[in-house]
Structures are given as structure tokens and as C-alpha cells.
Specification:
Layout: H1 13-22, H2 24-37, E1 44-53, E2 71-75, E3 80-92, E4 97-104, H3 109-117, E5 125-128, H4 136-144, E6 147-150, H5 160-163, H6 166-172, H7 175-184, H8 195-220
Helix pairs in contact: 2-8
């Protein structure tokens, strides 16, 4: 990239960021238009979340940015507390990211699920989640909305071996491919310092993932 610098003299990083933030409504419109064209052929939807820390853990209690909109949550995969946000996402079983929501890091996965599913998503589908979505109240609320929630049982729960269908668990893990691609586009390493900048960078990453899905579907055809 450095060899192209001589062709772009006098660029302003701050001006570029300001103009990029002005494109946020357009980016949303493009993604929503793509969503209307997508037809999910499968019968499964997958829901999961990933953390977005905005500082190093050592700064959790003295950080100044995003006060009031971010807080401290727990990253189970690395067993560490972090300050920032949590992104909840819904993905079709063929890998298309349908929708997402951003909450404080401390918000439980199950708490945001119903609110996220209220938006226009294909009804009469199975919704696959991990153990974090294991809740009778959540399953009941989703059933009234036209969804059947399936989550694996914890190993110490009665009937776990019979209930934990390996095929469904494999389908659920397919969302990790989308999260890996989002991580590649720095969705989990968002270094914005304002809510609008954070949203803009996240939207760009999600737009890139959706575009990659469209291109791969064209190749398959």
C-alpha cells in the first residue's frame, strides 16, 4: 500500500473519516436492499454474539470513551472481562447475515433475542443457539412469534446425550465462519472513538461480509 502514497498527496485522515461517517445511511440502505433480495432456502436460522472490546482490560475501570453506552462484560472464550459492546447477529444456515444488534457488553444473549427477532425475518424456522440461549421463557416467547428454539443442553443436564443432536450442533457452528470473516474486516477490533464512528465501521464490515456471500452464491450458480 505504501508504494501508492505518492499518487495521493495531502490526504486528510480526519476528513476521510468524516466523509465516511456521512455515508452511514447509504450503507444501511444498500444492506437492507440486499436483505430483501435474499431467499433463505433452509429451515434454520442461527443466533449468536461476539464481544467488541474498545480498550485493553487493564483500562476497564478508567476508560473515558463511550460512557453510558458501553460497560464491562465477560469474554468466556478467553476468560477475561472487557469494556465495550456485544454484537448479536442472526445468520441463515447458508451463511447470510440477516440482521444484528449492538448492546452493552453485560447484556445477556437471551435478553436481546426477542427484540432482534421482532424485525422481518423468515417465520416458521428453527432458531439455533448455544447454551447461552437456554431459557424456557425465551423458548415460549419465540414460539408465539413462529420460531422453534433449539439449544444444546449442558453436559451435566439430564438427557443431554440424547438431546444434543450433532447435526444441529454442526449447523449452528456455521455462524462461526461469518464471525471469522467479520473479525478479518476488524469488526471485533473496532477502534472508533464515537458511537457514529463505531456504527459506521461495523456496518462496513457487515456489508463486506454480505457482499462476499452474494459473490460466492454467484459462483455456485
Amino acid at each position: 500500500q505504501r508504494r501508492f502514497c505518492k499518487f495521493f498527496v495531502g490526504l486528510s485522515h480526519s476528513r476521510f473519516n468524516r466523509r465516511a461517517r456521512m455515508l452511514l445511511p447509504l450503507i444501511r440502505c444498500i444492506r437492507q436492499a440486499w436483505n430483501q433480495e435474499v431467499k433463505t432456502a433452509g429451515e434454520f436460522l442461527i443466533i449468536d454474539s461476539f464481544p467488541v472490546p474498545v480498550c485493553q482490560p487493564v483500562c476497564n475501570y478508567r476508560v473515558k470513551i463511550f460512557q453510558g453506552v458501553a460497560d464491562i462484560g465477560y469474554k468466556a472464550t478467553k476468560k477475561v472481562y472487557y469494556y465495550g459492546f456485544k454484537v448479536h447477529a442472526i445468520v441463515s444456515d447458508d451463511g447470510y447475515l440477516l440482521d444484528y444488534a449492538v448492546t452493552k457488553a453485560s447484556v445477556h444473549d437471551a435478553k436481546e433475542t426477542v427484540e432482534l427477532m421482532i424485525n422481518a425475518h423468515p417465520a416458521n424456522h428453527y432458531l439455533l443457539g448455544d447454551e447461552g440461549y437456554l431459557s424456557k421463557n425465551l423458548a415460549t416467547n419465540l414460539k408465539h412469534m413462529g420460531y422453534v428454539l433449539w439449544t444444546p443442553y449442558r453436559k451435566n443436564m439430564q438427557g443431554a446425550r440424547r438431546h444434543n443432536d450433532h447435526q444441529l450442533m454442526a449447523i449452528r457452528r456455521s455462524i462461526e465462519s461469518d464471525f471469522s470473516l467479520l473479525s478479518y474486516y476488524n469488526a471485533e477490533n473496532n477502534r472508533a472513538r464515537s458511537p457514529v464512528g463505531f456504527q459506521q465501521r461495523l456496518e462496513i464490515a457487515i456489508l463486506a461480509v454480505c457482499r462476499a456471500w452474494h459473490l460466492s452464491s454467484l459462483v455456485k450458480v
